[in-house]
């Protein structure tokens, strides 16, 4: 592989960013020209296309926690741990495993945040508490090889009509059972 100078890499990167910015401005300008204004109403075909798109059978709709609910759940889990004298981190992930809220309590260890995120991801991925999932490793030890997962007690799914909408992970207490108890306190806060 050819070595390039730092200056050449910076110039190439700058050019790429400028090209992307120009493309974005062009897209915004093009969409601004087609807006429905009193002086130039949109064509009936354009209105029909937008209306038809809302009923497109190719689209899927999903349910997830809003940021207020995710924050409330994380804070409830952290409060439960603090009340028990434990120093933990709490993560709430959405249905896709993306972290929405991450709280690192005072005194929580440096590994706690990543462990909490991975437990939350694991719980929402399988729609089950991670303590149950850890037991499945005996029958399927390769589960632990899935990236981003952590099969230790401390993660709990939040559900709506039986389907997972979020995962809450807690890490840092001396046992996974305590972590999971605090995660369940976060889930319970969503019902209030």
Write the layout of secondary structure elements.
Elements: H1 6-33, H2 44-53, H3 67-83, E1 89-94, E2 99-104, H4 112-126, H5 130-136, E3 155-160, E4 163-171, H6 176-189
Antiparallel strand pairs: 1-2, 1-4, 3-4
Helix pairs in contact: 3-6
Outline the structure in words:
- The protein is α+β, with helices and mostly antiparallel strands and 192 residues long.
- Helices cover 47% and strands 14% of the residues.
- It has helices at residues 6-33, 44-53, 67-83, 112-126, 130-136, 176-189; strands at 89-94, 99-104, 155-160, 163-171.
- It has a 4-stranded antiparallel beta sheet with strand order 2-1-4-3.
- A hairpin with a 2-residue loop joins β3 (155-160) and β4 (163-171).
- α3 (67-83) crosses α6.
- Mean pLDDT is 83; it is low at 25-37.
Radius of gyration over C-alpha positions, nearest whole angstrom = 23 Å
H/I helix tally:
6
The strand line-up of the biggest sheet is 2-1-4-3
In N-to-C order, the SSE pattern is: HHHEEHHEEH
Uncertain regions: pLDDT < 50 for 5+ in a row? 25-37
Fraction of residues in β-strands: 5-15%
Global mean pLDDT: 83
Question: What's the end-to-end separation, in Å?
Answer: 59 Å
Approximate helicity band: 40-55%
Largest sheet: 4 strands, antiparallel
Structural classification:
alpha+beta
Dominant shape: globular
Number of strands: 4
């Amino acid at each position: 592989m050819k070595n390039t100078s730092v200056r050449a890499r910076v110039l190439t990167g700058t050019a790429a960013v400028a090209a992307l910015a120009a493309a974005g401005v062009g897209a915004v300008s093009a969409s601004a020209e087609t807006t429905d204004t009193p002086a130039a109403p949109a064509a009936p075909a354009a209105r029909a296309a937008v209306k038809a798109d809302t009923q497109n059978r190719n689209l899927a709709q999903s349910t997830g926690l809003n940021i207020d609910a995710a924050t409330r759940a994380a804070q409830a889990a952290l409060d439960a741990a603090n009340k028990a004298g434990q120093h933990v981190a709490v993560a709430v992930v959405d249905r896709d495993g993306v972290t929405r809220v991450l709280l690192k309590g005072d005194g929580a260890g440096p590994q706690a945040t990543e462990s909490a995120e991975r437990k939350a991801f694991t719980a929402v991925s399988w729609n089950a508490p991670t303590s149950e999932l850890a037991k499945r490793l005996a029958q399927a030890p390769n589960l632990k090889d899935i990236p981003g997962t952590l099969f230790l007690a401390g993660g709990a799914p939040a559900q709506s009509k039986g389907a997972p909408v979020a995962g809450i992970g807690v890490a840092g207490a001396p046992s996974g059972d305590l972590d999971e108890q605090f995660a369940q306190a976060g889930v319970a806060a969503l019902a209030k």
